[in-house]
TrEMBL record, chain A:
Its main location: membrane. GO terms for cellular component: plasma membrane. Keywords: Amino-acid transport, Cell membrane, Membrane, Signal, Transmembrane, Transmembrane helix, Transport. This is Urea transport system permease protein. The chain crosses the membrane at residues 246-273, 305-325, 337-355, 388-405, 432-452, 472-496, 503-521. GO terms for molecular function: transmembrane transporter activity. It is found in: Cell membrane. Belongs to the binding-protein-dependent transport system permease family. LivHM subfamily. Residues 1-25 form the signal peptide. It is a multi-pass membrane protein. GO terms for biological process: amino acid transport.
UniProtKB/TrEMBL annotation, chain B:
Keywords: ATP-binding, Nucleotide-binding, Transport. It comes from Allorhizobium borbori. This is Urea transport system ATP-binding protein. The lineage of its organism: Bacteria, Pseudomonadati, Pseudomonadota, Alphaproteobacteria, Hyphomicrobiales. GO terms for cellular component: plasma membrane. The keyword ATP-binding applies. InterPro entries: ABC_AA/LPS_Transport, ABC_transporter-like_ATP-bd, ABC_transptr_urea_ATP-bd_UrtD, P-loop_NTPase. One of its GO terms (molecular function) is ATP hydrolysis activity. PROSITE patterns: ABC_TRANSPORTER_2.
Automatic annotation (TrEMBL), chain C:
Its main location: membrane. GO terms for cellular component: plasma membrane. This is Urea transport system permease protein. The chain crosses the membrane at residues 14-35, 47-70, 76-94, 130-153, 159-178, 208-229, 259-284, 296-320, 332-353. Keywords: Cell membrane, Membrane, Transmembrane, Transmembrane helix. It is found in: Cell membrane. It is a multi-pass membrane protein.
Length: 537, 250, 386
């Protein structure tokens, strides 16, 4: 019994040896690898493609080794191995199976040369091979790799993989990869037509590139389809570009809104031109810096909370500076707007120099908490987290302020003072204190803006200077005394700016916006949302 | 249209204007004859000042016609044009050039060429000098002619402003509350002065002071809510039940 | 007519200041050129150039005072007119370099060769001629002021709104001149000048002549400004400042009055800029900075706006202070300047000259009132109500 079984096993082994020997000429991986030893680059490419077609996942490490330059030819017998290690002796492994097969002196081996074409071929083959990997993530990555560098060689493999594939996400990518690969293959025209449709659905600049390069090689009858697909993709792209510009515009607009909204309050309610408003923003940003430094030194685990802590700190610090400023300078200048402008400009110089003396003239490092960094993709939009948070933050600040003005007792007093100062004061409203706290509120909001801006701009003593003119433009454009005007003003200026930028460049775009505002003010001297009638005079 | 209209100095027909939904003037019609002195009364917000704004080109009406001397459409002109046509205006709050002397105030108001270069190279002629001195005498400010207008009393500023209007040689004078803040003696003087002025030109006076209006003894128009409520002699108007209800009675 | 116009402006104070200016214009260069360096009265060249710079600033402040002090238009963009005048002069000086530049191109300035430009942009033509460049020194700022003012004054933009948009104007120009494609040397501006009208710009004689020219032009502009201010037009101007609507209802075209003054003022600022550039040897976009324009306002405010002599004194004093401070304690200068802004607006709103004049006038008025009281004014029937 045992003998017979042994004999049968031996026979089967012999048979298999025989068959494998016959097949080796064509597709035995080990033999193919050995052929690499003598092949030139063109032949190497072919061999790699052959190896790829086996669909054998075990070959992956060998390919990776080849790409990394770890594939060697043993001079004595012309066999090819993967060799690893450092020093004079290297460990040898069978490329087809990955088994260790002893070691050899470095001198007895010759490295197989790799150039870029070979490397590309390897990557293609790898892409095909890993398509069959049992690991879903690996398959997904492989399908994407094929999609990035399509090749007709992978087509059969892709189709095989698609038959087995169960995961819908991976399937989609594979379908797309198949379509892309199909275009450069010799498949029939109707299949290619379908492929073009699939590619159109992928969209994006890469798809256009693929279609363009395919256009040269495919059948002439397909050209209209390709052109149509390209046009379709371009239309979609334009839409996404516009959406992206709107997004950038909203982002800039939210920054402008933050910077301008405090100004809208002091200007709108009190008629005070606060040229030091930008410096309040700057102080807010420095408050963030100080809070972060403190956290770094004392409680690094709280770093992700640093902005949440900085917000009230900045609000209180700048609010207090504003209160002092109002009590010590501005209150003596009511009814003299031009003098107020000059005095606050003086204050801005003093504050700038004070910060420069305290913190030095260079930029200070303010870090992004983890939830503020990075970005994500939404359709064709690239959205960075910090911009998204700043937009949300500016909306929250705006709504909170609106609620404060409309719903609180302080807001009511503030509005009363705006509309009729004398009447308000004779009704028992302490107008000087309303003024002082209104100014403190405007300054405090500037401080909040500073916290937000510290995340996207350089924190330096000049931070405020770069925003002051823009914020004034927003307030003047939107109309004084109306928060909605400020909102609309900020967003529309932001969006117009970002739409002009691609056509004329950032600087010229900004100049154009300034010129447009100057012209606009001629038309509506009191801004977009102006009060009308006798009350204005 | 032009044929059927009575010969008038100032003609307002169906003038409407609104600010943010509030109707300041609601189809107001008014005719001032040449040489007429007219008093206009009415509660706050009746549209008196807005009417003056419309006539002097400060505000544009939403609809309606405003004609000067039957032919000039005032809605198409701006303040300076209208002033040059011969319509002078005194504001509710006396508005004079406080950092100029009384003399300079009148010199600026003189009806001479007002272009940039004519004023740059202007020199005071004997004729102009005489005219200024005459006006100074009329408004009783001769002794203070070289003092700054800012140092005048409230009543004197009112008078200086009237003097400036005279220097403008207007055909029509619009006077907004000329006796506000004046003493009784000053009020009486002002009434005499205005009547004197009205001998040579038309005057429209807006006033709250009924005693003053009575002193003037002229046709009265009562405005309320942007349109004419009653028109006639002071006795007629002050006995009108609508006027009593809307204005006098309260 | 013109002489009469000017003569009217020559009141005693103005004549005295004109005389002082002309004397400075003669004596300083003379001392620099004729006296030996050992002589205690010798003015060294650097000091003369520095003082010449102050006089340019004084002219700029005078120009600003004409619109702000007399007409009530607070322009925060006068630095732009100054810089445009400076650029016009700078372009002339660039063209004078000829083939002596680093790249040796006979026509193109160095920065154009560096940017690979093949030919001169159209707006650089003509600037090789002195008369044309000098014309542009007043025409370009005047034209900008005209266009800007025409729009702004016609639609009655005033007060802080006007201030803010003048600031936006100079800011827009700042951004524009920073661009290399504008053709004005971008960031670096125009510099490395060699000579002016054939005289080396570094020579003591040229510097002395430039100083004299600055003093002369300052005197000339002061005379013109004084003529304007003391004419009937000047009275209208003050009227516009104090009670704009009254002026309008008297039948004056306020927009024309403002426009004329704004344009004249811009031209003076342009001249100041043109005199400034050869003395400091460079013009760059930084001159358009909004901060510069506001600084001019403070010179004017310190000296006394609404007086013609005030801005001249203010500009010289503040800039002298700046030279001293930035040399000795650079850290403190911005504190001092900022403090000056606050202090002047709070405690000295009339400025130095204005305060002195006011005291003087108040004393006179008191004297006049005493005189009046001793006499009997029989024609007053109206007693003051207050």
């Amino acid at each position: 019994m045992t003998t017979f079984r042994n004999a049968a096993a031996a026979f089967a082994f012999l048979l298999s040896l025989l068959f494998s020997g016959l097949a080796a000429a064509q597709s035995d991986p080990a033999a193919l690898f050995d052929q690499l030893g003598k092949a030139n680059f063109a032949e190497t490419e072919k061999i790699i493609a052959e190896l790829g077609k086996t669909g054998d996942v075990k070959l992956v490490p060998a390919f990776e080794a080849f790409s990394a330059g770890d594939l060697y030819l043993r001079k004595e017998d012309g066999k090819v191995f993967v060799a690893r290690g450092t020093g004079a002796t290297l460990q040898l492994f069978n490329p087809a199976t990955g088994e260790a097969t002893g070691e050899a002196a470095k001198g007895a081996l010759t490295k197989l040369k790799v150039n870029n074409t070979v490397r590309r071929a390897i990557n293609n083959a790898l892409g095909g091979l890993t398509l069959l990997s049992p690991d879903k993530a690996v398959r997904f990555a492989a399908a994407q790799a094929v999609l990035k560098s399509p090749s007709a060689d992978n087509l059969a493999l892709l189709e095989a993989a698609l038959e087995k594939e169960t995961d819908s996400g991976v399937r989609t990518i594979m379908e797309e990869a198949k379509a892309v690969s199909l275009l450069s293959s010799d498949r029939p025209v109707d299949q290619k037509k379908l492929a073009i449709e699939t590619i159109k659905k992928i969209g994006g600049r890469d798809a256009i590139g693929i279609l363009r390069s395919a256009e040269a090689s495919v059948d002439a009858s397909l050209k209209p389809d390709i052109d149509k697909a390209i046009a379709g993709i371009e239309d979609t792209l334009k839409l996404w570009d516009a959406a992206q510009n709107v997004w950038y515009g909203l982002s800039l607009g939210s920054v402008l809104l933050l910077a301008a909204i405090g100004l809208a309050i002091t200007f709108g309610v009190m008629g005070v031109i606060n040229m030091a408003h930008g410096e309040m923003v700057m102080i807010g940003a420095y408050s963030t810096f100080i809070v972060q430094e403190f956290i770094r030194q004392n409680a690094p685990e709280l770093f992700d909370w640093s902005l949440a802590i900085a917000l009230p700190v900045a609000f209180v610090v700048t609010g207090a500076v504003g209160l002092v400023l109002e009590r010590s300078v501005i209150r003596f200048l009511y009814g003299r707007p031009l003098e107020t402008l000059l005095a606050t400009w003086g204050v801005s110089l003093v504050l700038q120099q004070a910060v420069r003396s305290l913190f030095g003239p260079t930029n200070r490092e303010v870090g992004n908490p983890s939830w503020m960094s990075g970005s994500f993709q939404l359709g064709g939009l690239a959205i960075t987290w910090n911009r998204l948070w700043i937009i949300l933050f500016s909306i929250v600040v705006f709504l909170a302020l609106l609620a404060l003005l409309k719903r609180s007792a302080f807001g009511l007093q503030m509005r009363a003072v705006t509309q009729n100062r004398r009447m308000a004061s004779s009704m028992g409203i302490k107008t000087p204190w309303v003024d002082a706290f209104t100014f403190a509120l405007g300054s405090g909001i500037a401080g909040l803006a500073g916290v937000a801006l510290s995340q996207i701009d350089n924190v330096s003593p000049n931070l405020g200077q770069s925003y002051i003119i823009d914020s004034f433009m927003v307030v003047v454009f939107g109309g004084v005394g109306n928060l909605w005007g400020t909102l609309v003003g900020a967003l529309s200026l932001g969006i117009v700016n970002k739409f002009l930028e691609p056509y004329v460049g950032a600087v010229l775009g900004k100049i154009l916006v300034l010129v447009l505002i100057i012209l606009f003010i001629q038309k509506r001297p009191r801004g977009l949302f102006a009060l009308k009638g006798r009350a204005v005079e | 249209m032009t044929e059927t209209r009575p010969r008038s100095l100032l003609y307002l027909d169906n003038v409407c204007v609104s600010f943010d939904g509030f109707k300041a003037l609601n189809s107001l019609s008014l005719v001032i004859e040449p040489g007429e002195l007219r008093a206009i009364i009415g509660p706050n917000g009746a549209g008196k000042t807005t009417m003056m704004d419309i006539i002097t080109g400060k505000t544009r009406p939403d609809s309606g016609e405003v004609f000067f001397e039957d032919s000039v459409d005032l809605t198409k002109k701006d303040e300076a044009d209208i002033a040059r046509l011969g319509i002078g205006r005194k504001f509710q709050k006396p508005t004079v050039f406080e950092s100029h002397t009384v003399w300079d105030n009148l010199e600026l108001a003189l009806n001479r060429k007002r272009g940039v270069f004519s004023t740059l190279f202007y020199t005071l002629t004997e004729e102009d000098k005489a005219r200024i001195e005459e006006i100074l005498a009329t408004v009783r400010l001769g002794h203070r002619s070289h003092e700054l207008a800012g140092s005048l009393s409230h009543g004197q500023k009112q008078w200086l402003e009237i003097g400036m209007l005279l220097a403008q040689e207007p055909k029509l004078l619009l006077v907004d509350e000329p006796v506000a803040g004046m003493t009784d003696a000053e009020t009486v003087e002002t009434a005499i002065l205005l009547k004197e002025i009205a001998k040579t030109r038309s005057v429209v006076v807006v006033e709250h002071d009924m005693g003053f209006i009575r002193d003037l003894g002229v046709k009265v128009t009562c405005l309320a809510e942007g349109s004419v409520l009653a028109e006639g002699s002071i006795d007629y108007v002050s006995n009108d039940p609508k006027v009593i209800e809307n204005y006098l009675g309260r | 007519m013109i002489t009469q116009f000017l003569l009217r402006g020559f009141d005693r104070k103005i004549v005295a200041v004109l005389f002082v200016l002309l004397a400075i214009g003669v004596l300083v260069p003379a001392s620099n050129l004729l006296l030996s360096p050992e002589n205690p009265l010798h003015v060294p060249t650097y000091a003369m150039s520095l003082f010449g710079k102050y006089l340019c600033y004084a002219l700029l402040a005078l120009a600003l005072d004409l619109v702000w002090g007399y007409c009530g238009i607070l322009s925060l963009g006068h630095g732009a007119f100054f810089a445009l005048g400076g650029y016009a002069m700078g372009m002339y000086l660039m063209r004078q370099i000829g083939s002596r530049g680093v790249y040796g191109d006979p026509v193109l300035p160095d920065f154009m060769v560096f940017l690979n430009w093949k030919e001169l942009p159209w707006f650089w033509h003509g600037f090789d001629m002195f008369w044309f460049a000098m014309l542009m020194v007043v025409v370009v700022p005047g034209l900008l002021a005209f266009v800007f003012g025409w729009f702004a004054f016609r639609s009655r933009v005033n007060g802080v709104y006007l201030s803010i948009i003048t600031q936006a104007m100079t800011y827009a120009l700042l951004l524009a001149f920073f661009r290399n494609d504008m053709g004005f040397g971008g960031n670096n501006g125009l510099t490395d000048f060699k000579d002016i009208l054939g005289f080396s710009i570094q020579a003591d004689g040229t510097r002395a002549a430039l100083f004299a020219a600055t003093a002369l032009f300052l005197a000339l502009c002061l005379a013109i400004a004084s003529g304007i201010v003391s004419s009937k037009f000047g009275k209208v101007l003050v009227g516009v400042r104090d009670a704009e609507s009254r002026v309008r209802f008297l039948g004056y075209r306020v927009e024309h009055i403002k426009l004329f003054t704004f344009v004249v003022s811009a031209m003076m600022a342009g001249i100041a800029g043109a005199l400034f550039v050869p003395q400091v040897g460079i013009i760059n976009p930084g001159e358009f900075g909004p901060g510069n324009s506001i600084e001019v306002v403070i010179w004017t405010a310190v000296g006394g706006r609404g007086t013609l002599i005030g801005p001249i004194i203010g500009a010289v004093l503040v800039n002298f202070g700046k030279s001293v401070f930035t040399g000795a304690f650079p850290e403190i200068w911005l504190f001092a300047l900022g403090g000056l802004f606050i202090a002047v607006t709070l405690f000295l709103p009339r400025g130095i000259v204005g305060t002195i004049q006011h005291r003087f006038k108040a004393r006179q008025a008191m004297k006049a009132a005493r005189d009046a009281e001793s006499g009997i004014d029989s024609d007053t029937k109206i007693q003051p109500a207050e």
